[in-house]
Amino acid sequence: MNSVVVNSVVVNQNAAQPAVLFLMGPTATGKTALAMQIVERLAAASPATKVSLISVDSALVYRQMNIGTAKPDAAQLARYPHQLIDLIDPADSYSAATFCRDATAAIHTAHAAGQLPLLVGGTMLYFRALEHGLSPLPEANQAVREAIAAEAGVAGWAALHQQLSEVDPLAAARIHPNDPQRLQRALEVYRLTGRPMTALQQQAGPQVPWRIHKIALVPSDRAALYQRINDRFAAMLQAGFIAEVEALQRRGDLHADLPAMRAVGYRQVWRYLEGLCSYEAMLVAGMTESRHLAKRQLTWLRREEGVQRVDPFDEKSVASLLNELVTKRI
Hints:
Layout: E1 3-6, E2 9-12, E3 19-24, H1 31-45, E4 51-56, H2 74-79, E5 82-83, H3 96-112, E6 116-121, H4 124-132, H5 142-155, H6 157-167, H7 169-174, H8 180-193, H9 197-201, E7 211-217, H10 222-238, H11 241-250, H12 266-273, H13 279-303, E8 307-310, H14 315-327
Parallel strand pairs: 3-6, 3-7, 4-5, 4-6, 7-8
Antiparallel strand pairs: 1-2
Helix pairs in contact: 1-14, 3-4, 5-6, 5-8, 6-8, 10-13, 11-12, 12-13
C-alpha cells in the first residue's frame, strides 16, 4: 500500500487515486496569495507535507507579460515555485490540449515526489478540460476564420453574436458581444461541424486518476469584487503596464490579433498605443472587460459540481478553509 502525508493525515494512494487540489476563482480574488498561505500552513502543520503549485492561467504561460497578468514577482516565485508559468513566447499560442498535457505531467511528477499538487488559477476552461477531458472540437480552420472576420468587418460583431444566439444560444449567453475571439471560435465550430459548440463540449471525456478537491473563491459582495478589479487595473497602469506593452510592440513580430495580445488589459492598452482610443477610454475599457471576465468566471463556477465555496473577502471563511485543509482528510 502506497501512502503519503497530506494535510497532517495519511492519504491512501492505492487504486491510483492520489489527491489533487483545485483552487479556482475569478480575477482579483487573491488566488495566488491564498495558495501561498496554504503552502505555509500545511508545511507548518506537518514538515513532511510538500505542495507543488501549478498555474492554471492562459496568460501566465507567456514570458515578458508580467504586470498585466498579475504574475507573481521573482521573489514570490523563488519562495513559492509555480509550474506552467513563463512557458512560451507571446508570438506563440497555447491551447487547452497543451495545458492538459503539461498539467498532467506536472501532477504526475508531484505525486512521484510525494507532493500534493495544488492547481491555482482562473482559466476555468483549463480546469474543466483537465477534469473531464477535451471535447471533440475541430481544429482551427483559417479559411472559415477569415470568412467570419470578413463578415464582422461588414456587419459588426454584434450581428455575428446574433447569429450565434440562433444556432448556439447557450454559448451566446456566456460570450460577450465584444469578445470577437470567442465569438469567432464558436461560429467556426458550428460552421465546420453543423453542431453547436456547447453540445460538443458537453460530451464526456475520460475520468482522471485522481481524487480532486475543488475550492472556489466566490465573493458574497459582488460590488467589492468589482472595486478590487478597478483598483487593480489602475495599479497595473501605475506600475508600468503601458511601458510593458510598448516593449512588446517594439519587438515588431507581434500584432493585436495574437492570442497573447488579446488577453484582457493587453488588448485595451494596445489599442491606446495605436492611437485608436484615449487614455480615459482605455482605462474604462480595461476595467469593464476585467469585470466581464470575472462575470464569465463566476458563471463557470456556478455550474461546477462538488465545489467547496469560500468567500475570499471574509477572513473567517478563509481561516476556516485553512484549518480544514490542515485537520481534515481531502
